[in-house]
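Quick board copy: two proteins, each given as sequence then tokens.
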Amino acid sequence: MVREKLPNAIIGFFMHVAFPSSEIFRCLSVREALLRGVLSADLIGFQTANYARHFRQTVARILVLETLPKGIQVDDHFVDVAVFPMGIDVKTLTEKKREPEVSHWVQVLTERYQGVKLVVGRDKLDEVQGVRHKLLAFEAFLDKHPEFHQKVVLIQVALQTTEENEAHGGVTDVVARINSRFSTLTYQPVVFLHTEDMSFAQYLALLTVADAFLVTSMREGMALRTHEFVECQEERHRPLILSEFTGSYSYSGFRSCIAINPWDTRNTAKAIYQALTMDDAEALSRWEDLHNHVVTQTAQAFVTSFLTRCLRTNIEHLQGDSAAVSKLDSARGTLWDRDPREQAFNPPDEALEVLGKLAEDKKNEVWLLSGLPVNGALGYVAKKVPKVGLVAENGCFIRPGAGPSTGSDPAWINMVANFNLSWKTACIEILNYFTERTPGSFVEEREASVVWRFCTHKDSSDRQWAKRQAAEAQNHIFDSIGERYGLRIIPGETSFLILPN
């Protein structure tokens, strides 16, 4: 809608939450409209590389558009897709944590929990935040390590959400069970604060006195509360226990945390023990890595990076538009078509004669672009009209036209000589799997590329099924070998091409 009203506007779209896999997104009834709307932006940003990959795969699968590691080709324009890590305002937080009220609450909490280790968590009370899994892991920790009875307390701050009533029951039951099992007259192992009344000063004080900060999210973007914890630990350097399913964990700077799978209760309990018994030297080393990420990937850095990239992308698009020529459809400019089911192909002599006459004129430089391999029809063309330049396999091989600088019989130039072509074996294996399940489809293996023809007749009754299979095949290839080998997948109406990027 914005693009329709303001065709030349600079539009950047940033996804602040996790983007689902294509399997989940395809369940939406308005999936195509949503994707088309987002693709009207100049730049689409995500918090992690995984979320960006999910988006590209979803677009390839549902809209059958060409996707590249840097973005998506949409009709006559290219949409950039990039990753921008979120951060916090470190300068403001540093000023806040030095306020007298924070110091007061640090003193209060230190006196109240003297001689006790504090494990702190702060999450919204919904299923995806994994609060119940956190409590179960803490219970398992107390069962496994009786020496920590009356020596450790979990303070869990639960923020209110729209799902709180449903989630609240399962969480409070576990809290009640833990406290009934391990409490004494003077000790309560879990302090569960389901309130919005906690001030920011109290929250910062809690982060400052914590001996470990525990995040057990099932799926989350950038967990910025972990950044706040790291900054508040400037003096104590205590460890962070972080779910692998958060966006923060995907960045190398946060790999110095203690990583957990929140579904694995036993190992999460081990992580709690590791954090509480970690020596100061290791804790300091881990904290320094975490802190370096926090102070470099700030909120200001995020905004600057995103806006700069958005402006640059828009300028590139405008420059591309100003130099653009009218788009050719699939028929215009095509000298001859061939039946993909037929191996042999002889270019018509009439067309070759016309090309030869054009190439004889010194004012012209004639090139013939083809997806065909070097041997076969293009070899025949090279002999019949040697002055015509040839491009084979969609750019993988080039043969300049004969002339004073190239000689009478120019050699083919391999443009992918430095590429690792071992991917073809795995690619063909995947395509053979889909060929067995798609009537009329077949694989064409070339020297440096592979083509899968999934629908040889545009009016075939199996066309819709074939297109779905093609989308699945592209998705699978991109997932398994695409990024590893730097492959480009170019979709067409009845086939798609895989070649080095």
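And the next:
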Amino acid sequence: MKTDTSSTRDDSSSALFKWLLWAALLLLILAVATYAQQRLDVNQGAKIHDCDLQQGACEFEGFTLSFGPSPIQSLQPMTLELETSEDISFDQVVADLQGADMYMGQNRFSLTPSDENGWQGDTELAVCTTGTMRWRLTLSLTRNGETQQHQFEFDAQ
């Protein structure tokens, strides 16, 4: 009696295809999870400051941070300014604005030296259809290869 070898090959090919498909799906899930964790780790270790930029300038560790013009509003050109009374140089000063409770896209920009003891950068906030939006500003200060981060939260319409 003859067995049908083509049917057996089709079954094993189908099983192999399904196994490879599941393996690819698992790898994709792991890649997305790893990327998300790395994105979260960027702000891990940031010093959180209880200072509302909507109320005015924030002072921390010898720095003054201001964001204006006031009041801070969506879709308006804004300038972020960082000043210090000391002569401190940074290799890079970067600001990252994100929705605190809702994804609002990437809004990352560099601050450039404005004078001997200051840096500034221009941006604008995305509009939110819910009215008032809670924003998180992460300021990254890099000097000699080491980065320190500072976080501030504020509301804007």
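Board note added afterward: Helices lie at 5-42.
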